[in-house]
Amino acid sequence: MSEFEKEEALNLQKEFEWVLHKEVHAALEQIHQVLVECAHRFPVQLYGRDNSNKQDKFQLTVPPDQLKCSAVLTGDSITHAEISIKVIRTANFIKTHIQGEHPWKLQQVQDAANHLQQAIYHIDDVGKNYKFKSSDEVLHILGNILGSLQRGRTSLIVPRKKTIDDLIKSRNMKSLTPNLSEDVAISFYIQSHKLILAVYQIYFNQGVMKYDSIHAECSVPWLNEVLVLFTVGLQLCQQLKDKSLKVGSREAVPTSGWTNISQMRAVLLESSKQSVSIKQQ
Prior knowledge:
By secondary structure, this protein is an alpha+beta fold. The protein has 6 helices and 11 strands. The strands form 3 sheets. Strands 3, 4, 5, 6, 7 and 8 form a 6-stranded antiparallel beta sheet that branches. A 3-stranded antiparallel beta sheet has the order 9-10-11. A two-stranded antiparallel ribbon has the order 1-2. A hairpin with a 2-residue loop joins strand 9 (184-191) and strand 10.
């Protein structure tokens, strides 16, 4: 390399260090703002704000009169519900309710909030004046943030599968007054932006246990907002990860190893484009 190329390579190296020390912090701050906004949408006590008294009322029905439910969601629990179930095989009706002193806990909401808070704490643990020593260090932190966000989002989108026996023995079933007979089980759960009520009516056919099921659902506005912000946070993290990988590819090659300055320019240009993309989100 000529002296001119060595000097230009040194300048480019300084620019890469600027990306590592400045741009990464700017991107992390933007991700932090998105995640805090997401946290403030949750109806629980989370990251300095307590929305646990937030109440929403919903109607869940399956016509014609197979299932009717009016429910009040307070924080992460069903605090009141009036439920009417039509027994498929007899056409009789079963009525039960949930009262405030024995709420039905929606564990998915608290699980998602816990994972979100952990993601925010991973960013908080990075001091604003901290100088990253390598792109690998950035990638490690981003891996922790991405993992927490993915687990939090999954908590809301993919409810845990439970057997009929699990549902019947669930602590939440004790919230119902009067208690249901042993051949009926219900479940409230979150799936994506919806609150779902599922009813299972158990019967035996030639000694084999079977069941009929009906589901009622309604949209929950704050869930939709939370999922959008989870997605934005994940996208911003992935963009920063891709950019850090570009920086890492430069770290792996010593300055004297570049045979063409245009190679270094191309890598830096790609990093700059990704930086603009992150700022415009």
